[in-house]
Amino acid sequence: MDTRPKAVGPEALREAQDRFIAVWGQMGSAWGISRTMAEVHALLFISGQPLCTDEVMERLQISRGNASMSLRALQDWGIVVRAHKRGDRKEYYTAEQEVWALFRAIVRERIKREVDPLLASLYEIRDLTAGITPDAGPATEMKALTSAHNKRLDEMLDFFRTVESLSQRFVSPAGRGLQIAASLLRREDSRGGVS
Amino acid sequence: MDTRPKAVGPEALREAQDRFIAVWGQMGSAWGISRTMAEVHALLFISGQPLCTDEVMERLQISRGNASMSLRALQDWGIVVRAHKRGDRKEYYTAEQEVWALFRAIVRERIKREVDPLLASLYEIRDLTAGITPDAGPATEMKALTSAHNKRLDEMLDFFRTVESLSQRFVSPAGRGLQIAASLLRREDSRGGVS
DNA sequence: GCGAGATTTCAACATTTACTGAAATCTCAG
DNA sequence: CTGAGATTTCAGTAAATGTTGAAATCTCGC
Asked: Cα separation of B36 and B48, whole Å?
């Protein structure tokens, strides 16, 4: 499609970075992270070196306020850290460079922020109708509906408990996530699966 | 906190459904699915029976157009199906009731829509700077930067290849997802882990 | 093949979410 | 301490996203 000659040297690197930033920003917004925040992260990750607020603003063409808020949020997520450079008043920021550690941090935060509260709500919701099923008494239609409802909720709860549990493993100390994934793949591969 | 007496009978069921719908809608929007679409799904899932467009509109207080579009999207995701009732001109809709099947479908679609294109882009981006690293020649700073850049990209690619691969297993025929998760938990549990 | 009843589409609108820029606040070298 | 330089905050505004409702389209029993 694009028939322009391939850029070489610095241009190629710059273009690769820009495309990575764009793609990462897109990915972010598909998964509920604001585009800019994802782009800031992408920039720090792909450039691999500490950048200051002004460099981020300049490169991504965003306002100072936006840059500040995005950087703050990324730090809250635990995937970007501040770094002082001595003899320099500015703050510099670096992204976690280990890809697996990066995703462990992301999973940790999303579980904490979204799955755990969801689980808590599901338990509460389950309690609203908990008293209905067990005892016998006349088998009304109402009871049948409630019982089916409870079953659905229980299965959902079960699912998210499993997710929560699996994530704990994935997230926990060094390398676990990688190991889990790798062993899983290996085990499956030895069964001579489809393409 | 809430000290009102607990609702019983039909009221309790209705309230439980409403809260489930709210919570599910919230979850959806945190993960990049529009609130309404998630709510429509929640309603179909939790009520467990075929509902027609008007029932959905009525219960969620949304317009006909919105209901139609949400239902269509849910069908595209493969988690809601149409059902004719004979002697009735209306279409009825049901949500996948098996929780694991539901999430397999969701994972399948998200991988297809988001991860696969991302992988393709990452390969393209990697190609932009692929020629730089290998050969020797004078070791410029440029080369060092590019080489580090390539390493980061390669690790990212590796990660998403693994994700893609794992998802294939999870998504593939009946029960695999459950088995994988369960076996993983069992294996880990037998190590006498923390809480 | 007609048409009543149902669904889909889409331009206009509403709501939500994200961004800006300047003022307030913070900080550290001198 | 002081204040120049840096960061954070936030009210106002811009952009993106989601929703409506009515017209266009589809569909199926007759």
From this structure: 18
Q: Is the pTM of this model over 0.85?
A: yes
pLDDT of residue B2: 56
Residue A149 near chain B (CB below 8 Å): yes
Nearest-angstrom CA–CA distance, A67 and A92: 12
What's the CA gap between A160 and A8, in Å, rounded?
49
Determine contact: B20 vs chain A, CB below 8 A: yes
- B46-73 pLDDT tens trace: 999 999 999 999 999 999 999 999 999 9
The interface residues of chain B toward chain A in range 33-92, judged by CB-CB distance below 8 A, are 45-46, 48
- Three-state SS at A93: strand
pLDDT tens across A83-112, in order? 987 777 799 999 999 999 999 999 999 999
Taking the C-alpha atoms of residue B176 and residue B153, their distance in angstroms, rounded to an integer, is 31
Joined together, the tokens standing for residue A10 give 């610095």
Tokens standing for B63?
């317009």
Write the CA distances from A91 to A46, A68, A80, B35, integer angstroms: 19, 11, 12, 38
Which H, E and C letters describe chain B, residue by residue? CCCCCCCCHHHHHHHHHHHHHHHHHHHHHHCCCCHHHHHHHHHHHHHCCCEEHHHHHHHHCCCHHHHHHHHHHHHHCCCEEEEECCCCCCEEEEECCCHHHHHHHHHHHHHHHHHHHHHHHHHHHHHHCCCCCCCCCCCCHHHHHHHHHHHHHHHHHHHHHHHHHHHHHHHCCCCHHHHHHHHHHHHHHCCCCCC
- CA→C1' distance for B67 and C1 (Å): 31
- Residues B139 and A47: their CA atoms lie apart, in Å, by 19
Helix axes A141-171, B99-110, angle to 10 degrees: 50
As given in the structure block, the two tokens for residue B37 are 């679409």
Q: Give the whole-angstrom CA distance, residue A38 versus residue A29.
A: 8
Distance of CA A194 to the CA centre of its chain: 29
Q: What's the burial of A40, exposed, middle or buried (CB within 10 Å: 0-12/13-18/19+)?
A: buried
B24 → chain A, closest CA residue: A118
C-alpha closest to that of A12 among B147, B136, B117, B161: B147
Name the token pair of B124: 């393209």
* Segment (H or E) for A147: helix A141-171
